[in-house]
Specification:
Largest sheet: 4 strands, mixed
Strand content: 25-35%
Radius of gyration: 30 Å
Shape: extended
Order of helices and strands: HEEEEEEEEEEEEEEEHEEEH
Number of strands: 18
Length: 323
């Protein structure tokens, strides 16, 4: 860290004649920062002066106009609750420019997505589906009705409200890769978010007072990669613990030799060669096998507790986060 500060100091001093010194902090994925209990993510400036009292100037892809659902608070760029639904719009370069005592510098971070976001062309929903579970941040095309020349109007409501979210649009474009190449009146939902969940009621009005109706429900699927990794590892530890508890005890063969099971495998080995510091003292209730079970369980419990503590601290981290 001292070497890094020394290099930065030399850069600022040798570039005092320049108006701004540009320093690249490298890449950062959207999934990397911890999410606060309020659903916020933070992008820090990482400037040289930790207690910089002056203003922070943030720019996105060279523009002073920042993306929606963001704000600057205490020098850090905050992605507000619900920003995960439009995360594809945040990909790009972020520059944090400050006028420090050593000179003026811009600190750049490149934000990217670790998991790709699928567009509506990859997510086509058939007209016969009545219940949908859409992934947050992805886009979808929902087939509502087959197109007809007798069309007059198409009206949809969400939870009995006819004012739909701004990311809901309608289209009757020809679908690609369909066998019948038919035309459909479609609903296009871009960047699915919490506002898109609920019950949709759509009415297609045709000539001669003929109508067609369709009702379907939309729920949102959201999984935090870090949380899922913690839960997956905890589940693995629990499974291993259960396997350790169910280890078979040593058995005695016809020739009188004892055999102990090798943990988590289906094979057994002679008790005399089963780890030289373990000795089978009994016959059917071998102490070496019992001791091994106990130690395996203790290790797994300790690992599970550490993972659970890491998970809880990760959730609370941003509550008391400091620059």
């Amino acid at each position: 860290m001292t070497l890094g500060f020394a290099v930065l100091l030399s850069v600022l001093l040798t570039s005092s004649d320049a108006r701004w010194v540009h320093i690249d902090h490298g890449n950062l994925t959207w999934e990397s920062p911890e999410v606060s209990p309020l659903g916020e993510r933070f992008l820090f400036c990482h400037n040289f002066e930790g207690d910089h009292p002056r203003r922070f100037y943030w720019r996105f892809n060279g523009s002073s106009v920042l993306p929606e659902r963001t704000q600057i608070h205490k020098g850090r760029l905050t992605f507000l609750k619900g920003a995960n639904a439009i995360r594809r719009r945040f990909v790009g370069f972020y520059d944090c420019c400050v006028r420090e005592s050593l000179g003026s510098a811009c600190y750049r971070t490149h934000l990217s997505l670790d998991e790709p976001v699928l567009s509506e062309g990859r997510n086509v929903v058939g007209e016969d589906i009545a219940s949908l579970e859409l992934v947050e941040g992805h886009s979808y095309l929902l087939r509502l009705f087959a197109a007809t020349k007798r069309f007059e109007s198409l009206v949809c409501s969400l939870n009995s409200k006819f004012r739909l979210p701004p990311n809901v649009h309608f289209s009757n474009d020809r679908m690609a890769k369909t066998r019948d190449s038919a035309l459909y009146y479609q609903m296009r939902i871009e960047d699915v978010g919490e506002d898109n969940t609920g019950i949709y009621d759509c009415t297609l009005r045709l000539r001669k007072n003929e109508t067609r109706t369709k009702r379907f429900s939309v729920t949102e699927e959201f999984q935090s990669p870090k949380m899922m990794q913690h839960f997956a590892l905890l589940s693995l530890l629990v499974t291993l613990g259960a396997a350790a508890v169910s280890l078979d005890e040593a058995t005695t063969t016809k020739d009188g030799s004892e055999w102990c099971p090798i943990p988590l495998t289906g094979t057994k080995c002679p008790a005399s060669s089963f780890f030289h510091y373990y000795k089978c003292c009994g016959t059917l209730n071998s102490d070496c096998c019992f001791n091994l079970q106990v130690w395996v369980i203790i290790v797994l419990v300790v690992l599970a507790v550490l993972m659970l503590a890491s998970f809880v601290l990760g959730l609370l981290r941003c509550v008391f986060c400091r620059r």
